[in-house]
Amino acid sequence: VSELSSMGSDISEMQLYANELFQIPWAMLIFFFMIYFVLGYLIYSSIYAAIGAAVDNETDTQQFIFPIILPLMLAIYVGFFSVFGNPHGPIAVGFSLFPLTSPIVMLMRLPGGLGEGGVPIWQLVLSIFFLVITFIGIVWLAAKIYRVGILMYGKKPSYKELFKWLKY
Fold first, then answer.
1. Please, are residues 134 and 159 in contact by the beta-carbon 8 Å criterion?
2. Distance, CA of 147 to CA of 126 (rounded, Å)
3. DSSP-assigned states of every residue in 86-127
4. Are 149 and 57 contacting, i.e. CB atoms less than 8 angstroms apart?
5. Rounded to an integer, what is the distance from CA 72 to the centroid of its chain?
6. Gap between the Cα atoms of 34 and 39, Å rounded
7. How far apart are CA 10 and CA 151, in angstroms?
8. What predicted TM-score, i.e. pTM, was given to this entire model?
9. Which of 38, 47, 57, 125 shows the greatest Cβ crowding within 10 Å of its Cβ?
10. What is the rounded distance in angstroms from the CA atom of residue 82 to the CA atom of residue 59?
11. Phi and psi (nearest 5°) for 108?
């Protein structure tokens, strides 16, 4: 008899989880996932293209990779420890507006919905606007690095060198 009662409580617990899953706005979440995925991909691929234009071989890229991966790691960390606990707190809002972390953090905030009680629409629009502007800026900087980097074959660049290239 005790097995049947514990099985009944397990079923009711599963029903609670199923009800929570059905309350998530899946269509909106998939739509914004596509937007954030594409914009995030464009930003990070542009950064990696700039690094590829600046170096000659894979070993030279190691010094430039960590600062690019750091915002991604930080976004996941902030997402798990801040967004899930307080999705409308200043840390969650700040990281969901910062272009290098918003493709991850904003998608962790969106299952709560949009508008009243969820992510304010102005934050969503501002986040996407920042992503687009950042992409345009990074492509412009990557073009400057490419223009000089293609001529500097054989020379191992440093951060100081890259900043000089941006002035040309």
1. no
2. 32
3. -TTSHHHHHHHHSTTTHHHHHHHHGGG-BSTTSB-HHHHHHH
4. no
5. 6
6. 9
7. 67
8. 0.81
9. 47
10. 36
11. -80, -25
